[in-house]
Amino acid sequence: xxxxxxxxxxxxxxxxxxxxxxxxxxxxxxxxxxxxxxxxxxxxxxxxxxxxxxxxxxxxxxxxxxxxxxxxxxxxxxxxxxxxxxxxxxxxxxxxxxxxxxxxxxxxxxxxxxxxxxxxxxxxxxxxxxxxxxxxxxxxxxxxxxxxxxxxxxxxxxxxxxxxxxxxxxxxxxxxxxxxxxxxxxxxxxxxxxxxxxxxxxxxxxxxxxxxxxxxxxxxxxxxxxxxxxxxxxxxxxxxxxxxxxxxxxxxxxxxxxxxxxxxxxxxxxxxxxxxxxxxxxxxxxxxxxxxxxxxxxxxxxxxxxxxxxxxxxxxxxxxxxxxxxxxxxxxxxxxxxxxxxxxxxxxxxxxxxxxxxxxxxxxxxxxxxxxxxxxxxxxxxxxxxxxxxxxxxxxxxxxxxxxxxxxxxxxxxxxxxxxxxxxxxxxxxxxxxxxxxxxxxxxxxxxxxxxxxxxxxx
Length: 459
Ligand code: AMP
Ligand code: ZN
Description:
The structure is a single chain. The chain has helices at residues 39-58, 72-81, 85-102, 118-130, 159-165, 204-216, 230-244, 277-283, 286-294, 306-323, 330-335, 340-347, 352-368, 372-389, 396-401, 410-425, 429-441; strands spanning 4-7, 12-15, 23-28, 60-65, 134-137, 140-143, 180-185, 200-202, 220-226, 251-257, 260-262, 302-304, 444-449, 452-457. The chain is built from 17 helices and 14 strands. Helix 4 (118-130) crosses helix 7 and helix 12 (340-347) runs antiparallel to helix 13. It folds into three domains: 4-257, 3-Layer(aba) Sandwich (Rossmann fold), CATH 3.40.50; 282-399, Up-down Bundle (Four Helix Bundle (Hemerythrin (Met), subunit A)), CATH 1.20.120; 404-457, no CATH class. The strands form five sheets. The chain has a four-stranded parallel sheet with strand order 4-3-9-10, with helices on both faces. A four-stranded antiparallel sheet has the order 5-6-7-8. The structure holds adenosine monophosphate (AMP) and zinc ion (ZN). The site of adenosine monophosphate has 15 residues, from helix 1 and strand 9.
């Protein structure tokens, strides 16, 4: 059995072969920490967490997911809120890890922060200047794109066409419109570090190249991120790293997840439809969100709606329902593993829809089985599958009692219904509707009848 992955550069699914036998290195572009993560940001974190788990079954994996803690958006947030930059970044690093933890995302082996790798970035920029791939101009250092003829190979863009099609130069210090910033000057109020080119700060792309080199070596096996990062971020990382390493390849496989939309619309601040993980987990159990994010194949677009959440909730109810009440002896559990068919689906370019179909086939088999030993063996295989996928991580009784974090208990629901009754009595219909929506988000449907309001879980 082999692992197949879709490589963006080759544009197809290929056999995965790591550089060093038995070992894999993986780098995922992580968050820029100036705000809470939204549900779109959670998609790469969850998808590549699952890939890490699948790889760890066969290989010794070193997985790095960086933190971008120096960025103009962070500076802007500091000006806007009047809070020091360090306070903002610390707060949102913690929030990110808490939110992703609630979705069953394991911490990566290494979580490098950009601000702790400035020295490495300066060294790499120095090498690029020395080898003629970068130049200093007006306090900036720029990567000389035409000096690297393979530019565009990852994102399938033709460098000559890009040059021919480019408009009037935006920045006068650029030799070519495609050249991108490796280092830029800082004013006294902005974060800055001493460098051979004056006090300044790094460009975004060089951060990842330097951190990947430091922790994973010159050539890494897998580089991952959302599909919006293919160009220019990953194209630029690739160019810098290859030029700084005498042409050595940077990443052997490039993996990109598709985008998540909300009710068929792009998520954006201007549309006011940005869903923060931090808010979603108040009413929806993390496992429901995780499964919803894994319900489509990672390269496909994923539309997020109430139906997506309800369907994930129903699926988990069925899986938990199958193993409920079965006492699996520890030795039976220890000897169990996920079915080969489920593993094969995940090793086939992380085919999660097929893996879930296999999971349900197992649940059906368990529901039909009557022999106690068979039932224990099948329940153990289900638990092992859940452990691999980051699902079924609470006790079934806890799940059904609604005591899972984010799930509302009967008491919580009664309290909310009281609040709603009062809001309606005060003719505050907006507040009453908001409570109804909150309950709906948590999978609770309510019905007003002559005898009062009744509720049921819509799973
Ligand atoms: P950012 O903090 O904006 O750099 O984004 C962090 C990660 O989230 C990157 O890998 C992005 O590609 C990814 N991402 C951002 N928005 C979405 C979305 N709507 N759907 C899927 N991935 C996204
Ligand atoms: Zn990156």
